[in-house]
Design a protein that fits this description.
By secondary structure, the chain is mainly alpha-helical. The protein is built from 19 helices and 2 strands. Helix 8 runs parallel beside helix 16 and helix 9 packs antiparallel against helix 10.
Length: about 500
Amino acid sequence: MSDQPTRQARHTHPSIPPEAWLPARRFAETLRRPIERFLHVEAAGGIILLAAAAVALVWANSPWHASYEALWHTNITLGLGRWAFTRDLHFWINDGLMTVFFLVVGLEIKREIVQGALADLRRATLPVAGAVGGMLVPALIYLSINVGGPGESAWGVPMATDIAFAVGVLMLLGNRVAPAMRILLLAIAIIDDIGAILIIALFYSSGFNAVGVVVVGAGLGLLLALRRLGTRPGWVSVVPLGVIWIGMYLMGVHPTIAGVIVGLAAPVRSWVGSEGFMELAHEALDNFQDRAARGASDHDLLAPLEQMAFARREAISPALRIENALHPWVAYGIMPLFALANAGVHLGGLSFGGEGAAAVMLGVGLGLAVGKPLGVLLASWLAVRLGLCVLPTGVRWGSVFVIGAVAGIGFTMAIFIAELAFVDPTLLAIAKLAVLGATALAASIGLGAGVFLLGGADSRDAVSDSDFEASSDYWTSGELPRIRKTLAD
């Protein structure tokens, strides 16, 4: 109580910026607070994504559906002098902005491999088994229905999981979800993303071009040179990212893979760390206080402020810093825009009687809504049965089924692969509709199963990431420390 007046006396800055008008400021704060509270809810990204898809569906089936199609076919040109590159808005969203989405995916994969649930084989065995089962079973279900048909090549569509949407739905179950359960879902989704990236690169690319290979090599060389020069990732990474993107496009590989490559190259170790931050911060504060006491100008105060900014920036790893900076743009901007541009299926002219239409609908729908939970559950059970791993504390077989069910929410990645897999616009529209329907069904199954199969969280469920280390000692490898150090470097 005695130090309260002192703290109040030191509070010398005004409560609002000097140029602000108090009533307008208060009105803005009133609007901002509920928005911030909503955005901090973990399910917010999934809700916005679902809302964007609903808007797209309504718009595409409204009297103004022609304007929906016309918007995404609006040409946008990037040019310099006589050089010009013209593509429609749909291309710039799917092939351009989605590169940032894949960059964040690459950062998440790198961090999980080096420091997270995939950091060693003992912890990774269960999610790897679940993810592999959750990819293979949906693909086999799809192929069993579509073998020999016009949609046969789209077997990769039901293999995907939408991380943001799946985690958002899981969080709607509240305290029924043990922390280890969420970690397991994230790990499965990350491995799922690795599989989806490999599928896109290997099976949904149009071929290789020698010029493109050279350009990609130049981009990778530039990326490596920046690392060796000690240049910390940030805006400077846009240059090698752009070069690799161009090379991938010329090669015939989907250019968004460039984002994954740059994300995987980001360091996951901080420069100064927490102790270094404290040391530099105290030094910068002392320097700032000395200069301010001498009546230094604002310009003279820049040096200690820049030192403080450096300490703040390098206290955490570049991978985490960039991921944290890009996440809001991806979750609340790029992904909803992608859904708006791709989820609009015009049902009026859609025919389910065409060749392969019903098979595609069933293959995608059953693959996601049935194949995912079945594959995750069976593969996880087999891994535990063989003694390769054990279930983490707080995770039961009912929990694994719920995880598999919400993993059937393919949405973003499934629609993305469908755009690459289908040439026939009718089959593409049907596949998108199947993805949307299966996403709704998988979310409903996951929520319903969660209510019936998961009890309320108790003290036994309050576990952390370390519970994945409860796996058996089946996996032992002296190479793991070396591999982790190599990836971190």
